[in-house]
Design brief:
6-stranded mixed beta sheet; Rossmann fold; GTP-bd; binds guanosine-5'-diphosphate; GTPase Der; alpha/beta; GMP Synthetase, Chain A, domain 3
């Protein structure tokens, strides 16, 4: 688990510009799984060996369109402050202090978290120092001049941010051999209902286990001779705070749970269709190496075949990056198909831990060579010498090739498809790496 740095502020101050800048400055991890949406609201970043997750609260869509805009900004700020380890509060130096800035500042102060007040759009920092003074009135500490656009000040800022981060929470991952399952999804998708249905089943023996991380509570259920750990169920069990229904909160909660999970149950509200936010949550799980089972919940609410077909169409469109996932139509309310979840969890977890022998892998490579599909750029022609499995959970493979720069997205996709057609990776992401070898 990585510490979370939240970027907070009213719209248009330059939050996403800053997030992109930091992602470029620091060695933001280039994800190996494809299909990542362009519009990112979070990044895994690494500055001088300190890893953290940077979250742009502005990139998260407001829950309801009827939300009053400023109320939603304030809620996002509140939720961000609650969940973050460090807060980057961005204001616009070319405009000065606004009422909305003051409202965000009040929320942040309550949280008592390390906060940096970044006065953005000071593109000529030497000449604009006096602009900083008025921002002292916000009462959240010394204003720091930055220009997200030009990058002034971001390197120093990162030094100061990582100095305040807690150590990574990695050692908190428990290794007792019990399969860890996270229930994730947007607010209102039906996570709590599903959780209660699972706990209420005659076939589940339930025990609560002591919190392992900060405020996390896990629930272990026994089904026959198998055990499953439902991770970070505190927020699902009992909606304890007013933040539970905030998109940002569910995303950060999701991130924390995903980091400790082997398999993610992605709960979708079929009555509202699959949204961009669902897609983002799915990407979070995939990028972090979780197997996923997609639960199309509230299936009972779809009135007719037309509605059901439409739902499946949006699912196919939105989940193009994970055609390999298993889908289950359920109703957490009636219990429909809820018992079927476990077989899919088991098979996804099994495929996630698969080991493929080197000889089988290289047989595939030989077949691909004979098939003749390769990449040619001028006089250079891609040659793949050999491939080995370099990791499990999820399965990772390294291909040794003559020119790594020839590998493009479509070729990656082609190789992944061939791998999946040959071996059973249903339900799990796989990682492909390419290394140079002449
Ligand atoms: P957000 O709504 O807070 O995420 O703001 P954006 O990142 O979308 O930026 C809003 C506008 O401010 C965009 O037109 C940016 O190009 C501009 N902007 C952001 N940072 C800077 C900066 O450092 N200097 C200047 N001059 N413009 C900036
Ligand atoms: P969470 O925010 O993801 O934990 O969602 P909840 O479990 O609180 O559910 C949100 C609302 O959807 C509640 O009113 C539930 O009763 C309702 N709900 C959940 N699952 C289903 C379902 O399968 N069918 C129907 N009709 N309603 C459901």
């Amino acid at each position: 688990m990585k510490p979370i740095v939240a970027v907070v502020g009213r719209p248009n101050v330059g939050k996403s510009t800053l997030v992109n800048r930091i992602a470029q400055t620091s060695d933001a991890i280039v994800h190996e799984s494809r299909g990542v949406t362009r519009d990112r609201s979070y990044y895994d970043a690494d500055w001088c060996g300190h890893e953290f997750t940077l979250v742009d609260t502005g990139g998260i869509e407001p829950m309801k369109s009827e939300d009053i805009f400023s109320a939603s900004i304030r809620d996002q700020a509140l939720a961000a402050a609650e969940e973050a380890d460090v807060i980057l509060f961005v204001v616009d130096g070319s405009v000065g202090v606004t009422e909305e800035d003051e409202s965000v500042a009040r929320m942040i102060k309550r949280a008592k978290k390390p906060t940096f007040l970044l006065v953005n759009k000071l593109d000529n920092p030497d000449r604009e120092q006096e602009r900083l003074w008025e921002f002292y009135s916000l009462g959240v500490g010394d204003p720091i001049a930055v220009s997200a656009l030009h990058g002034h000040g971001t390197g120093d800022l990162l030094d100061d941010v990582v100095a305040l981060l807690p150590e990574s929470y990695e050692d908190e991952k428990i290794d007792d051999g019990i399969l860890s399952v996270a229930i994730i999804g947007r607010p209102n998708a039906g996570k709590s209902s599903l959780f209660n249905k699972i706990l209420g089943s005659d076939r589940s023996i339930v025990s609560n286990v002591a919190g392992t991380t900060r405020d996390a509570i896990d629930t272990v259920i026994e089904r026959g001779d198998k055990k499953y750990r439902l991770v970070d169920t505190a927020g699902i069990r009992k909606k304890s705070t007013v933040y539970e229904n905030i998109e940002y909160y569910s995303m950060v909660r999701g991130l924390r749970a995903i980091d400790r999970a082997d398999v993610a149950l992605l709960v979708i509200d079929s009555s509202t269709g699959m949204t961009e936010q669902d897609q983002k949550v799915a990407n979070l799980a995939i990028e972090r190496g979780c197997a996923i089972v997609v639960l199309l919940n509230k299936w009972d609410l779809l009135p007719d075949d037309h509605a059901r077909e439409q739902m499946m169409e949006t699912v196919e469109r939105r989940m193009g990056m994970a055609k390999w996932a298993n889908y289950l139509r359920i109703s957490a309310l009636t219990g429909r198909s809820v018992e079927k979840i476990w077989a899919l969890v088991d098979s996804a977890a099994q495929n996630r831990s698969a080991r493929i022998s080197t000889s089988k892998l290289n047989q595939l490579l030989t077949d691909m060579r004979e098939f003749g599909h390769t990449i040619v750029d001028g006089r250079r022609r891609l040659r793949m010498h050999y491939v080995t499995q370099t990791g499990t959970n999820p399965p990772a493979f390294t291909f040794f090739v003559n020119h790594t720069d020839l590998i493009n997205d479509s070729y990656r996709r082609y190789i992944e498809n061939r791998m999946r057609a040959t071996f059973d990776f249903k339900g799990t992401p796989i990682r492909l790496r390419f290394r140079k070898k002449d």
